[in-house]
Amino acid sequence: LEEWSFTEGEVEGGAFPCLKKLYLTGCPRLKVSLPGYLPSLRELKIDKCAQLLPLLPMTQPMDSSFPSLEIFIVSHCDGQDSLLTGGLPSSLKQIIILGCKNLTTLDEEAFQNLTSLEKLHIFSCDNLRYLPRGLTTCLSLKSLIIVEMSNLEECFFIEGEIEEGAFPRLEELHLKVCPRLEVSLPHNLPSLTRLEIEECLKLLPLFSRAQQMDSAFPSLEILTISGCDGQHSILEGGLPSSLKQIEIYNCGNLTTLDEEAFQHLTSLGRLDIISCDSLQCLPRALPTSLSTLNIRFCELLTPRLQRETGEDWPIIENIPIKRIW
């Protein structure tokens, strides 16, 4: 399939006035741009269409052309170096971009006025270096997941912040396998409950020492950090007292856990530290709320935690569930 002309035969109500879902999958020769009016379209998925033309026409306002579009998925469209040119309808709630290897830019204007956007997930777009600055205007965003972006260098978290924070409704933030990414968190993420950082080797200190943790991240409950070998120390500057679970995996160069970071963690129930061979010791005082401690494959730390004989055994002896391997 090489061409599909939507425009021929359009009527006043649009070419397909009742169309709610449109999937174009596995059509590598297909050249297509959408018709100018799809009033009922709710979900659009484009997969493996390498010669995809700009999806959305630039000649008419998006809100009037696609007033019902909520879900937009683009995957494995390697013929595209730019996506979303010409803007997007403000009705969008989810955008997922996956495996577009030649993608270098996301149109800045496309993310402006996305007042309903709740989910933005971008996976395996190796040539994308920057996220658009307009992203900070997406104040309804609840889930931001960025995975396997080998050349991503910056996330524009700070610019565009307003009184209630850059992303006042953001609940989960995942940054995974972005080895060139340099990022520190915004000063205020009031709704963030889950934060996962994996294989971000140039990770800056996550939390600025100037921040008041409980006011900046009052809802954070789960913090996962893994594969960040560029860091000798993490969690500098303290942690919010709302934290219930901390997971630290595969940080081979990690030597210390900041003592101050574990103070005042009155809600912490679980601490997992796995495969951190250079970690020398635990903080001298762990929260009394801690009920589960998992320490596995930590070459230097494990001997210090052996029952009765280890130097750090007194630190952990009152924790109800301990798994030390």
Automatic annotation (TrEMBL):
The biological processes this protein is annotated with in GO are: defense response
Q: Does the keyword Lipid metabolism apply?
A: no
Top-level taxon: Eukaryota
Q: Which InterPro entries match?
A: LRR_dom_sf
Q: Where are the transmembrane segments?
A: none
Keywords, A to Z, come to: Plant defense
- What's the protein called, per UniProt? LRR domain containing protein
Its ancestry begins with: Eukaryota, Viridiplantae, Streptophyta, Embryophyta, Tracheophyta
